[in-house]
Amino acid sequence: MSIVRATIATLTKRHSGPKLPLRIYQFANNAYPMVTKGVTGGMLGGLGDLVAQYLEAGRYSSTRSDAVSRQYVETDGRHLADCDTTIASSPVSLSTLLLSTSSSPLPFEPWEGFSWRRLAAFATFNGIWAGAPLHFYIQFLEKRSGFGLLRKLLVTHAVYNPVVYFPSFYLCHGLLMGHDLPLIAQRVRCEMPHAFAQCLQFWVPVNIVQFTAVRPSAQVAFLSVCNVAWSAILSSSTGGNF
User: Fold this and answer.
1) Is residue 176 domain-shared with residue 137, that is, in the same domain?
2) What is the DSSP string of 86-113?
3) Cα dist. 176→76, 124, 228 in Å?
């Protein structure tokens, strides 16, 4: 601990202004990579959900009815209706369909119905994911000398995301939200196809920049920053069911 304090004190003396936080982060990332990445991922994941919930409040204020809003919000998603063929094949999520059957506009109340539990669940998952699985996955890719850009993209989006990331997200986030396994499985079946399509549209360009222009030690932080925008985009496209 004394070495850490001495090093931070040295950094404070050598750097000032906007460079100081970056230098402190670089030091922490080198000294405690998993903890630093986990804290960064958790904080930015929570920020992403904060932005998402704010956008949802504005989007639904003029379209939702009181009855439908109560049906979804008060049950916390536990009474999600069965997915029929139309819902399963549609790019619009089930929550969007429920909330779009409106009859009376509501005034914009950005923090009305704000869910701290949802924010905590999202931040917790992103912190755990950035601190361990994502950390080791990036190391795995960098140790494969034969993996060029195309192979990294293929492994990431044909194996890692659909097989590892999305199931882990739905399971962890669902359990933290208090959902039972049948509901979690139903959400995967209803929402994952469109969420994965959105993932390809957003993350393939981001991953190209990641693999070609960002050094490995900074890739988790880079992805965590991009994840703030991804959370807002995903919320807009799925009606906030995340």
Assistant:
1) yes
2) HHHHSSS-HHHHHHHS-SS-----TTTT
3) 12, 9, 20
Considering the domain architecture, whether residues 175 and 199 belong to the same structural domain is answered as yes
Q: Which domain holds residue 74?
A: 34-238
What's the structural domain count of the chain? Answer: 2
The answer to whether residues 166 and 80 belong to one domain is yes
Q: Among residues 121, 154, 152, which one has the least CA distance to residue 137?
A: 152
Residues 6+ apart with CB under 8 A from 145: none
pTM to 2 decimal places: 0.74
Output the CA–CA distances (angstroms, integers) from residue 99 to 64, 132, 194, 235, 238, in the order listed.
5, 36, 18, 14, 11
Q: Closest by alpha carbon to 64, among 116, 113, 119?
A: 113
Residue 204 makes CB contacts below 8 A (sequence gap 6+) with 153, 157
Closest CA relative to residue 80, chosen from 192, 191, 183, 189: 183
Per-residue pLDDT of the chain (242 residues; tens, 9 = 90+): 444 554 656 656 665 666 677 777 888 888 899 999 999 999 999 998 898 888 877 766 555 544 444 344 434 444 454 554 433 334 444 444 334 434 445 555 666 778 899 899 989 999 999 999 999 999 999 898 889 999 999 999 999 999 999 999 999 999 999 999 999 999 999 989 988 998 999 999 999 999 999 998 889 999 999 989 887 776 655 555 55
Say if CB 46 and CB 122 are below 8 A apart. Answer: yes
Residues 80 and 10 occupy one common structural domain: no
